[in-house]
Every structure is written in structure tokens, then in C-alpha cells.
């Protein structure tokens, strides 16, 4: 297989070819890292269709060639089969395998994220965050926090008004460009479900990013307090106060040169870190609007 | 008792407080007193009564207890965070 060269710009769905017996292959992009997903097993077509639908905003179409020195192609094999023996036979070379489509889909998202984050660990600062942007200016707010602080709910609720860039990982370059990661959102269909459904942002009516450069303009630490009443409370943090949680929510800080200074410098370039205390996602709509407009 | 710094990944000082990234992968934000104690430590051993005297110069006499006790407590906190070594009995060079 030739190395990838062009990896940007297209979201059209694609299966490599229609040869009989050839496993369906999909090309995706995550944090600008190209992926090839090979689906196999007796239910390969069903699997490929589900992946294609959920990851539609990340899908690439040819040409796949990427510039020299760009992120390396990541290959993931997915096996969906009702026959345990066949799964076992295929297991040696497979990354994800199973008899349940929902489980495979649930596992695919963190795997793709982990591989992409690892591939970009040396050239992006990657926040565990929801990223929303202004559709005209490209101004972007990165709202970071651990699991349970409402990132996906924020993306789902506010992404119909602002551009959706990610509900999970926001990658930022040294010159403050935010790299979109248009992954499906992991959503519990009902509170009692064991697995989250992987839902395309398009199916949720989120705003797809126009062809813009997205610039980090605000860095916000999420603090969800269910008992919080009234408007969201936005407060500035000193950088030294913000650093412990900031480091906890940024990947690969240990491999950075002077990580605290690197993050402090980044924070300083966007006016410092702010913390928002809120209970419901809707409370953040005016806050995000004001930060994108530069009036917060 | 003597104390010295342990190896760290990075530190960031602002407004009299320091955030320290430990080799254990944790970032800790120190109080002003602990920041002062931390900033007096280096790779070489230093007697804690010297640290106590400097802390009194910077922060005044403690309202409760002795400066030596307060200093020892601050240094023990640093040691528990893997930021400092304490040498209570047999100092070595």
C-alpha cells in the first residue's frame, strides 16, 4: 500500500471497491491522522455501514496521498461475526472483534482517539475537551474537563448553534490553530443502556465546520455542579491555579519540554484560563457566544 | 533535620505560589508557606532551622506553635508529595 499524501478536505463516504469477497475498507481522519478501517467477518457489510454512518464527518475519499512528514496511516481491523470460532481465527491480526455490533462501535471510538492522539503527541497540545467555534470568524472555545463534566452534552446542545469541532479531544497547534476531530458523539439512548450509541454529528443536526482556520480564543475549565442555580458563573483563574487540572486534561504533557510553562504560555496567549460553573448545558449558550465574540 | 529537593519535571511560579509537576506525574499547587519552603530547597541538603528562620523573615512569627514545628510540617508535606527528601538522623553529604 502506498503511503498517504492528501488527507484533508473531503467528507464523502467511501468503501474502497466493490470486489466480491473483498473486505469493506473505510478511510477516516481523526485529528488529521488518516485511518484505514478494514471490516471483516460474516457481518462485515453491516459493520461497515454502521461505521460509515456514525463516522460520516470523518470519512475521507481519494486521493489518499499525504504530504511527506505528515501523520502516518493507522490501520484498524474490525471483525463482526456471529460465529465465535471465526472470530477466534481472525483474532490474531485484528484490533477489535466481537459478535455484537454495538460493543464494537462503542470500542472503536476510544481506539481511534487513542491512536490519533498518540500519533499527534509530538506536535499538538491535545485537550480532553469539547470545542465549539464561530461559523464566520473561526474563533474557537475549548471547554475542558474530566469525564462527567458534560462535554458531549455541551456539544450536542450548543453544536446546533455553534460549529462542532469535537466533543472529546481538541488538538491545538503551536500557532493556536484548532484541529477539528469530527467524531461521532457517544450517547446513551436510554439511561439504562449499558452501551453508548455512536451517533453522527450530522444526525444530531450539529453545525458542520465550514472551510475555515479555527483559532483558539478561549480556554475554559468546566465545573458542572448539578445544584447550581441561575446563570453559569464564569470566573478567571490565575494560571498557577489552573495548571493542575489543565495538565490532568492534556495528553502527553510528560513528553513536553517544560510542560507547565508550555501550557501557561498557551493560556496567556488567549487571555488566561477561565472556569465556568454550571448545571445545564443551555446555561453556557450566552457564555460561549460572548467568548467567541470577545465580550466575555 | 535537613531537607533537599527531589527531582521534578517542571515548576511554575506566579504571585507567590508554585505549581510543581512531580516525577510521579502529578501537578501540585503549594500554599504560600510551602512555596517559600520549596524555593529554599536545592539539590544540596539544607538545615531546616535555616529554613525556619527564613520563613519567619518572609511570613513573620506563626500565630500558633513554633516556627520550627510549622517548618517541619511544611517540609513533611513536601516529602509526602515526593517533592523533598528529609534527613532527620544521620546527615550525609
Question: Which tags fit this structure?
Answer:
heterodimer, A: 296 residues, alpha/beta, Rossmann fold, 8-stranded mixed β-sheet, 14 strands, B: 93 residues, alpha+beta, 3-stranded antiparallel β-sheet, 3 helices, globular
Describe the structure.
The complex is a heterodimer of chains A (296) and B (93). With 296 residues, chain A is an alpha/beta fold. Chain A has two domains: 25-119, no CATH class; 125-293, Rossmann fold (3-Layer(aba) Sandwich), CATH 3.40.50. Chain A has seven helices and 14 strands. Chain A is globular, with a radius of gyration of 20 Å. Chain B has 93 residues and is α+β, with helices and mostly antiparallel strands. Chain B has one domain (2-84). Chain B contains three helices and six strands. In chain B, strand 3 (17-22) and strand 4 (27-29) form a beta hairpin. Chain B is globular and about 35 Å long. Chain B starts with a strand and ends in a 6-residue tail after the last strand. The relative contact order of chain B is 0.25. The model of chain B has no long low-confidence stretch (mean pLDDT 92). At the A-B interface, helix 5 and helix 6 of A face strand 2, strand 3 and strand 4 of B.
Global Rg of chain B: 13 Å
Q: How many domain modules of chain A? A: 2
In DSSP terms (H or I, runs of 4 or more residues), the helix count of chain B works out at 3
Number of helices of chain A: 7
Strand content of chain A: 25-35%
**Residue windows where pLDDT falls under 50 for at least 5 positions of chain A:** 1-18
Following the backbone from N to C, one meets helices and strands of chain A in this order, namely EEHEHEHEEHEEEEEEEHHEH
CATH fold descriptor of the largest domain in chain A: Rossmann fold
Structural class of chain B: alpha+beta
Main sheet characteristics of chain A: 8 strands, mixed
Share in helix of chain B: 25-40%
Mean pLDDT of chain A: 89
Number of strands of chain A: 14
CATH class annotation of the largest domain in chain A = Alpha Beta
What would the principal axes of the Cα set say about the shape of chain B? globular
Taking the alpha carbons of the first and last residues of chain B, their distance comes to: 13 Å
Q: How big a fraction of the residues of chain B is strand?
A: 25-35%
The amount of helix of chain A comes to 25-40%
Shape of chain A: globular
Radius of gyration of chain A: 20 Å
Mean pLDDT of chain B: 92
Amino acid at each position: 500500500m502506498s503511503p498517504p499524501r492528501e488527507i484533508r478536505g473531503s467528507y464523502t463516504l467511501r468503501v474502497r471497491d466493490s470486489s466480491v469477497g473483498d473486505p469493506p475498507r473505510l478511510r477516516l481522519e481523526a485529528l488529521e491522522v488518516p485511518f484505514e478501517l478494514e471490516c471483516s467477518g460474516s457481518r462485515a457489510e453491516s459493520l461497515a455501514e454502521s461505521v460509515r454512518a456514525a463516522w460520516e464527518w470523518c470519512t475521507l475519499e481519494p486521493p489518499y496521498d499525504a504530504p511527506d512528514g505528515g501523520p502516518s496511516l493507522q490501520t484498524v481491523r474490525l471483525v463482526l461475526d456471529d460465529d465465535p470460532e471465526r472470530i477466534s481465527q481472525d483474532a490474531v491480526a485484528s484490533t477489535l472483534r466481537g459478535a455484537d455490533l454495538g460493543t464494537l462501535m462503542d470500542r472503536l471510538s476510544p481506539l481511534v482517539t487513542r491512536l490519533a492522539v498518540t500519533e499527534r503527541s509530538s506536535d499538538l497540545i491535545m485537550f480532553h475537551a469539547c470545542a465549539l467555534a464561530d461559523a464566520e470568524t473561526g474563533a474557537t472555545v475549548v471547554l475542558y474537563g474530566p469525564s462527567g463534566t458534560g462535554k458531549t452534552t455541551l456539544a450536542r446542545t450548543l453544536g446546533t448553534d455553534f460549529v462542532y469541532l469535537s466533543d472529546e479531544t481538541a488538538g491545538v497547534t503551536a500557532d493556536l490553530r484548532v484541529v477539528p476531530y469530527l467524531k461521532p458523539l457517544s450517547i446513551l439512548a436510554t439511561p439504562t443502556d449499558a452501551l453508548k450509541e455512536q451517533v453522527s454529528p450530522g444526525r444530531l443536526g450539529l453545525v458542520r465546520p465550514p472551510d475555515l482556520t479555527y483559532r483558539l480564543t478561549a480556554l475554559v475549565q468546566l465545573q458542572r455542579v448539578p445544584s447550581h442555580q441561575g446563570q453559569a458563573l464564569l470566573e478567571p483563574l490565575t494560571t498557577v491555579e489552573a495548571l493542575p487540572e489543565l495538565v490532568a486534561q492534556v495528553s502527553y504533557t510528560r513528553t513536553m519540554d517544560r510542560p507547565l510553562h508550555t501550557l501557561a504560555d498557551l493560556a496567556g496567549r488567549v487571555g488566561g484560563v477561565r472556569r465556568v460553573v454550571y448545571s445545564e448545558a443551555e446555561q453556557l449558550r450566552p457564555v460561549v457566544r460572548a467568548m467567541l465574540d470577545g465580550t466575555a | 533535620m535537613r531537607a533537599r529537593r527531589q527531582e521534578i519535571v517542571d515548576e511554575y511560579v506566579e504571585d507567590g505560589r508554585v505549581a510543581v509537576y512531580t516525577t510521579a506525574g502529578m501537578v501540585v499547587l503549594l500554599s504560600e508557606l510551602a512555596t517559600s519552603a520549596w524555593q529554599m530547597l536545592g539539590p544540596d541538603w539544607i538545615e531546616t532551622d535555616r529554613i525556619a528562620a527564613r520563613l519567619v523573615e518572609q511570613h513573620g512569627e506563626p500565630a500558633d506553635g513554633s516556627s520550627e514545628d510549622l517548618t517541619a510540617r511544611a517540609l513533611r508535606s513536601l516529602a509526602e508529595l515526593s517533592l523533598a527528601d528529609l534527613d532527620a538522623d544521620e546527615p550525609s553529604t
